[in-house]
Amino acid sequence: MKKLLSNMSVLAAGLCLSAAALAKTDITFYFPVAVGGPITKTIDKYAADFNQQNPDYNVIPVYSGTYQETIVKVLTAHKSGKPPTASILLSTDTFTLVDEDAIVPIDNFVKTDADREWMKSFFPAFMLNGQFGGKTWGVPFQRSTVVLYWNKELFKEAGLDPNKPPQNWADTIEMGKKLTKKDAAGNVTQWGIQVPSSGFPYWLFQGFSTQNNGILANAEGTQVKYDDPAVVEALSYWVDLSRKYGIHPPGVVEWGTTPRDFMEKKAAMIWTTTGNLTNIRTNAKFDFGVAMLPEGKRRGSPTGGGNFFIFKKASVAEQEGAYKFAKWLTEPKRAAQWSIETGYVAVSPAAYETDELKKYVAGFPQAIVARDQLPFAVAELSTHDNQRVTKALNDGLQAALTGAKTPAQAMKDAQAEANRLLRSYK
User: Fold this and answer.
1) CA distance 102 to 104
2) What are residue 135's DSSP bridge partners?
3) Where are its TM segments located (predicted)?
4) Full-model pTM
5) 73 within 8 A of 64, measured Cβ to Cβ
6) Which end of the chain is more exposed for a tag (fewer CB within 10 A), N or C?
7) Per CATH, is 145-302+379-425 categorized as 3.40.190.10?
8) pLDDT by residue (tens digit) across 140-158?
């Protein structure tokens, strides 16, 4: 009897050990799908590869719509007590996530020299939106800048040098006039330039405002300068491209259709995210170039895209797994692979030293432009109560572009609304 009980005890202990070995820590990972391309397949493969290499964890990707839809979903889940373990969200969501007490600082998990070196490995420009109050709240993964794409064939048809994009605001106007085509009835069939003003109007506008030495918000996220004369002047230039010079579509231009308009030769030049690079390369049936944005008083573009955040209500084991996954995702070779497959900027200088990215860039030099623009980049607009403060600017931009308000009045009204929203944070 004693032997039987002993054998049963050994069997039970073995079953417990087997169960423990089979137990995995689930890491729910919300990922926004906001631009074209087979991104979900890439993320699925990353999750499968990580899970295979790290059998204690099970990363579960959840595709959550646009960035705007994703932030709503994760905050709703946070308030209900069941947030994801981690998510890629706009870097500009940092203030909101901290104000909602939804995330933990990445610093909490930095314990070794290797951890500290990893934290120092990213491009400094990409860390601007993820750090404040002496802490790092998110690390870059899916990052971008705004760049200019131009159709070399249409440049040649217009008598322009196909290898020379506009260098400044005046060039944009002169080239845009030559590139704008009309039919016999006077209807425009091809625009010289197209800059989208839906989806992320504030982000595209930051190209203009930065180039005119306008900074939209302070680093603490407590004050904006929408009505600064430099900002109003930048908006007037954008409005004039359409209303004065007739080289840009009137009214609100859709974010999602702008790459397609470019590929269908409805626009000879466009501004959009470098995250559309692989999509355009795959689908454009013509030779095209990519350049830094034309300069006004200076060169400039906002950084953009998403950071990796870890949620506060996840268990310690889940958080530790998410941190391990963040480090794994941003390893130089993987960051290089992500850049090649999507067009986003690889987040560290080391990624550009990999054989894979060196070879890719040698054959496709357009892929290096966004990286080279980083020294001229500024932090993307981000404040406390960011969604509403940004909406005030977006509404003002669209009011000016549609002619409902003058640029000066539109920015005055946007400033008043932002002041009201930010009053309690000062």
Assistant:
1) 7
2) 132
3) none
4) 0.87
5) yes
6) N
7) yes
8) 999 999 999 999 999 999 9
